[in-house]
Design brief:
With about 700 residues, this protein is α/β, with parallel strands linked by helices. It is built from 19 helices and 29 strands. α4 packs across α5, α9 runs antiparallel to α16 and α13 packs antiparallel against α14. It comes from Blattamonas nauphoetae.
Amino acid sequence: MCGIFAYIGGRPVLITLITGLKRLDYRGYDGAGVGLVNPQTKEIVIAKQAGAVSILEQYIQASCRGSILDKSSDFTLGIAHTRWPTMGAPTTQNTHPFFSNDKQWCVCLNGIVENSSKLTEQMMKEGYTFESENDVEVIAVLLEHLSKTYPDDPLSCFVATLSVIEGAYALCVLHASEERIYAAKLSSPLCIGIGDNEEKFLSSDPIAFREYTENVIHFDDNEICIISKDSFSVHKFRPSEGLEKDISHELRLHRTVKIPFSLDELELGNYPHYMLKEIYEQPVAVQRTYSGRIGPTHKSANLLDIKITLPPQLNSIVFLACGTSYYASQIGKYIIERETHIPVRCEYASEFLTSARLFNRQDLVIAISQSGETADTREALLIAKRKGIEVAGLVNVVGSQIARIAGQGMYLHCGAEIGVASTKAFACQVAALIIFMLYLKKHLSSIRVSGDITPAHTPLLEPSPSFPSPQPNQPSSSRLFDPPVTKDVNGQPLEESIVRVCSALRDLPVLMQHVLSNTTTMSTIDEIVAFMKDRKSAIFLGRGIGYPVALEGALKMKEISYIHAEGYPAGEVKHGPIALIDEDMPVFFIVSASDSVVLTKIVNNMEEISTRGGKIITVTDCEPTNSDEKVQAQLKRVRSISAYTISVPCSDLCCSPILFTIPLQLIAYRIAVEKGINPDRPRNLAKSVTVE
């Protein structure tokens, strides 16, 4: 959501702050601002503007002549912010940073102050005034108010303020009398980069300071950091107990990690947009995901980089995710259940927090998030962990909150993803889920899969210190693999089935590159874009593994091109959505020739749309060489009733969703560009959703 950046050191502060904000541009925002301390005059100066960072930069260049900013080269520290609105209209007044009434305090915050209304009312009764509708301004006013209780003690004021505010935050504060930055973290991400000569950077994302240092420390909840030019200290904080001892030395030793991407990955290069760049980076990104995890010669799965403890009697796997990650989890559910018969549930993390879900003590809960900072997913994972459930994470960002909470899982290794709409992270999530399925297959002979969901259940949101133990001799409805499993659910020996999928994964980057370089595919996409750009709505349909692909295609269409799009299981179309079909309604079908079970049924669904005048756009894989005559006839019918057909190479069914998704990404991207929409900054969206 919002982006925070702060700097203290010997570089030109204002230039460094603006550069950091530009690196955070991808997060989505409606305003930007900076706050700096003048060490000579002991004054704080703020510059902020609604709109893009470039507007702020132009404003500073035009207005700083003769002002305090004209001497900014003498400054040594400052804080900066890009705002994604949670409270207050997108105006300059509501943009961070915020002054206290006496202009001695300056505040930036990523998150939300949940008790801001109550606190604002209290401060107004004390005679303080407010210039914005923003919930964060009250923190600056509180700091001023509490300074009367703690005169000449900014740290105590800061700690006392944290004891009063409620919500989620990454917070940065300046006081005019000091060359220090005070920072605190609760739920929202915050990290520190330490460069040469002890210069220090604070940010919501290490992307902002990657060009200066590759060393980063991610803060945990309830940690306070005090930064000066020569040192920094970090303390655990609890409202009832105050500050604990300085742990900065331990953090440097044990929590410092390398930023796992190069500066080159943050540059556009020859691409007009990050989204297009990241679409074309997908073959290499997927290769990174499986490298070191499957054997180099198609013959084995090393799986050495997977550190996930499986419950001894596995009841089910529960995926927690939001948005694109949720659709990836649905593909994972299909693959795992099909290949292992282990039950899988996919839960929207945002709904999971408020619904009375049940857990079994033999469940495995896996949180999926590109950033590893998604607020709803993080909170749902914490609830599961507090219940004593085995948890894991599947994230891209090393050292992120979800990775640290889970303590085990898999990193995607797909590199930095800047575009708001996820592309290569989605492909890598699916690839990682395929690898996780192989990991499960490897362990099928040693784990038991229980179908019993009655023992040891507790409501998710009810307090429960422990799970009850099953009673001796209690009848069980468990279904167990007995004797030990030697073949998969398709009757193929386990090792052979693992080799089959490993081989398909290793071949996948070449097939992905074929889709991206195929001139026929690009020509068809041109025609589809010309047809679609003025449409108001679209429907995406799929069956089996094609259904979550349809959902992801619809999401890309609506978030990037602003065309209302909905994804449905193809079999559900006649239970309501078919009422929308006429000659103006585009209908995208995801048709897998590799899935003969659903091929006939989805062709029937296509006939239902065709007879009602719907314009069918089909994405399908090529005809398998061993297809029987019936399958060949079905595929021929698919092409004849489609207005447009995009063919992608045939692969193992597990890998096909990645190939199907690439044309859908390109179509959404191209429509956005044709409509004059910046696909890297779709309206109202943020890359990392760090508030609930």
